[in-house]
Amino acid sequence: MSALMSFARGIDRITTFIGRAVAWLVLVVVLVSAGNAVIRKIFDISSNAWLELQWYLFGAIFMLAAAWTLQRNEHIRVDIVSSLLSKRTRDWIDFLGHLVILLPFVTLMVYLLWPYVLHSYEINEYSPNAGGLIVWPAKALLLAGFALLFLQAISELIKRAAVLFAGYPDETPAGAGHAEAAELATLAPDEQQGGTPTPTGANGAPDSEAPRR
């Protein structure tokens, strides 16, 4: 299991490096979008290439950062339900979800996308729009994104199995939204609504002698 955990941590390092690098593309997208808008308004000049570049960069951010999102535990889930479950139950849901749903899905996508991207590369496919960009790199982003997600799914499956079956400590980061939901679930109803907690006596009953505001 230690060898598998080392393998999983190696995948996590690769995923984190790519995710942090791709995050800088958000700034590039903003600059390209703003520059394109300014040039179009001031000089009445526009280009399909710049518009398509924005789409390609957005696709790169979405696809290449998906694995990092999974590794950071920031993916979408029903927090109001998840926070009510025990830690072990959540671990089993994650383990089975990765094994039965995520891994088969990303495997299928990689299998289907490989010939799709290869064909586009072989014919040197270009955008049908006037002045548009070459297309196959954008399609390759789909394949790269699902390949990274496949590797990260393997890592998550290993880590969840280590927690469930080998007694390893859970190294999964607590996503911001999930942490807030779990904390909220531990509060009393009046505290969840932002009110002042009801004063209680030693036995937990309301304390009629407590000071009133």
Automatic annotation (TrEMBL):
Pfam families noted in UniProt: DctQ (PF04290)
Subcellular localization: Cell inner membrane
Chief location bin: membrane
Membrane topology classification: Multi-pass membrane protein
Signal sequence interval, chain numbering: none
Gene Ontology molecular-function annotations: transmembrane transporter activity
The name this protein goes by in its record: TRAP transporter small permease protein
Native species: Jiella flava
